[in-house]
Design brief:
Layout: E1 5-14, E2 17-23, H1 25-30, E3 36-40, E4 47-51, E5 54-56, E6 59-65, H2 69-74, E7 82-83, E8 85-90, E9 101-107, H3 114-123, E10 127-134, H4 143-149, E11 152-157, E12 164-165, H5 168-178, E13 183-187, H6 190-200, E14 206-210, E15 226-229, E16 232-235, H7 236-239, E17 242-244, H8 250-257, H9 261-278
Parallel strand pairs: 9-10, 9-13, 10-11, 11-12, 13-14
Antiparallel strand pairs: 1-2, 1-7, 2-6, 3-4, 3-8, 5-6, 14-17, 15-16
Helix pairs in contact: 5-6
């Protein structure tokens, strides 16, 4: 009998940003920081990768922004609704050891990945510094959770509505000037990871980024998630998703992320038309 994965909790965290707890016992049992799942909402649905943000009992948490057709469909599900397929945990876990002082940085929805990494680093005996940033205060997520885990937490907003007026890279640069940091993790939009990881280059600090290229099967078969790292082709789903930031070809990554933008736009427009004809459906998040 086919297993159905139920939505246990659905919460809206910010504009178009949702937190879902999904019952997936096998995934929850084996999940580690840095790994992800691939889910499919229904038989004819698209497969989408989502980072495992937290684990509690038999459930895993995913946090996503409803920007495309599938994520908008996902955001319509309510507690008790079922998801057809959840595959995982996929990818290599974060390289967690006792390094000394570690900095975990999240930008935008990339903040979703930071608590589990910070938590495992803390458990390994590290002094953990967190930096989380968003365009504005109303888009900032998981602040309380990160404050509870990290020894030090810095907030940045592009518009200065909360914390430091500026970017995560500004705070990181200041910290590196003042103290020794042994490892850095950065998760966020590709351009943010490119700029922020560039700050650590002069200091020779090993820096990891979690890449989010186009992904289909999650097993390395399709090759759609290929990225260039150290002038070699790697597959984010099996070789990553975390890589040495100083070796990543970010320009190629950003170019490949735009390949299907036209098709995605058409798909979203058709989905919007369908919703208008059929009615919005679903309820409202609390």
């Amino acid at each position: 009998m086919k297993r159905l994965y139920k939505v246990e909790l659905a919460t809206k965290l910010a504009d178009r940003v949702y937190e879902y707890w999904i019952s997936a016992p096998q995934v929850a049992r084996h999940a580690r920081a840095g790994q992800f799942i691939i889910l499919r909402l229904h038989e004819k649905g698209e497969r989408i990768p989502l980072t495992i943000s937290a684990v509690k009992g038999d459930a895993v948490r995913v946090i996503f922004m409803a920007v495309g057709k599938t994520t908008q469909e996902l955001a319509m599900l309510r507690p008790g609704d079922s998801i057809s397929d959840v595959v995982g945990p996929l990818g290599k876990p974060s390289e967690i050891e006792n390094y000394g002082t570690c900095c975990v940085i999240g930008g935008g929805v990339g903040i979703a990945s930071t608590p589990l990494i910070a938590k495992e680093l803390k458990a390994a005996g590290n002094h953990v510094i967190g930096i989380i940033g968003a365009r504005s205060a109303d888009l900032l997520i998981l602040e309380d959770e990160m404050r509870e885990i990290c020894d030090d937490l810095y907030i940045t907003t592009d518009d200065g509505s909360k914390g430091v007026h500026g970017f995560a890279s500004d705070v990181l640069k200041k910290l590196l000037e003042e103290r020794t940091i042994d490892r850095v993790w950065i998760i966020g939009p590709a351009i943010m990871m490119k700029v922020t990881s560039g700050v650590t280059v002069p200091y020779g600090v090993k820096t990891y980024v979690s890449l989010n290229p186009i992904m289909v099967d999650g097993t390395g078969m399709c090759g759609s998630c290929r990225v260039t790292v150290g002038k070699e082709t790697k597959f984010a789903c099996v070789d990553g998703p975390e890589f040495d930031a100083h070796q990543v070809d970010f320009n190629e990554l950003m170019q490949r992320q735009r390949i299907y933008m036209g098709q995605e736009k058409v798909s979203l427009e058709r989905f919007a038309e369908h919703r208008c004809r059929c009615g919005e459906g679903g309820g409202h998040h609390e």
